[in-house]
Amino acid sequence: MKKPRIISSIVLIAAVGAAGYFGWQRFHGADQSTAANNAQKAARNAVRVTIAPVQKSDFPVYLTGLGTVQGFNTVLVRTRVDGQIDKIAFKEGQLVNQGDLLVEIDPRPYQATVDQAKAKKAQDEANLANANLDLQRFTKLGEFATRQQTDTQRSTVAQLTAQIAADDAAIFNAQTQLDYTAVKSPIPGVAGLRQVDIGNIVNASTQTGIVTIAQIEPIAVIFTAPEEQLPYINEAQASQPLKVIAITTDGKKPLAEGTLSVINNQVDTTSGTIRLKAVFANKNHALWPGQSVSTRLLVKTLKDATVVPDDAIQHGTDGLYAYAVSQDNKAELRKVKVSQSIDGRSVVDTGLSPGEQVITAGQYKVQPGTVVSTAVASSDPAQQPKVKQE
């Protein structure tokens, strides 16, 4: 009787244990399943955003404006003598050097004047030689020649000597006029469109020129800056020439890099601006006279500034803000203060710290505390223009 009781007790205990185990397994399995489902649901509900790091770097501060390119020197070449054009020795758009022949005017009338002046000098030299011989004869005669005769002869010699000096001046003037028949470039530069053709008669009195020469190496850009920036420009320019970058008017292509050379001596009271002049070496001829460009004047460089992409900065009713991403991938709203912004980057004075991550895309889906799924931006924020001067 005892053996069946023992077996029954063992079976009962095993049944109770099995029931308890299966109940415990089912209860905790349900909890784990719920937690896993909640995690999957949270992952599915996470907002996908793009992030970028808050960086600590030097930040250049530029004054931007619009400018016009001008030849460093520009000359309208005119004739200084009258005559017919026999030869045009340049091509339109050609680079010319200082002293290169541009136009040749018929030189024959001026050559004849030179020859006449030289012949007159030869005649006067012969008369002077004869007068000197007569003076020597009168001197040798001594008391046999009257004093009046001797003095008169000395005067004749002096007059002929002065006449030869006048002949030299006449020859020089005639030769100068002859030289003017070869019209040469007064400066190095680019020749523009010619305004006269071969065979035309040109006159020194007319205002119409022959051609315009514009010097493009170096070249200048005239631009303006607000008058309130003048003290900062003067202060920075006093230490060293400020860097100026010329860019296409669409802001996409840097053209050249130069230095600020002149600050105008007065402010334009009608516009409240000051005119500035920058000089560029322009070896690659990227700048051309008359061209409109955007300008950037480097006033100073902020050291170790907190820099973020412009896309991270949002505008709200209470001012500027940005979303930072916490360690647990939740969005945190930060009110920020921005002092400078250029080329896709902004300097944040307060609200963010270097090393943090900020949301640059997808903010419209985000609220404070929203769980986010992050993707790093595909490219770094645009850097300031870098120009290699050729």
From TrEMBL:
Belongs to the membrane fusion protein (MFP) (TC 8.A.1) family. Keywords: Cell inner membrane, Cell membrane, Membrane, Transport. Residues 304-362 form the Multidrug resistance protein MdtA-like C-terminal permuted SH3 domain. It comes from Bradyrhizobium erythrophlei. SUPFAM superfamilies: HlyD-like secretion proteins. It is found in: Cell membrane. It holds the Pfam family BSH_RND. Residues 218-300 form the Multidrug resistance protein MdtA-like beta-barrel domain. Residues 114-181 form the Multidrug resistance protein MdtA-like alpha-helical hairpin domain. The keyword Heme does not apply. This is Membrane fusion protein, multidrug efflux system.
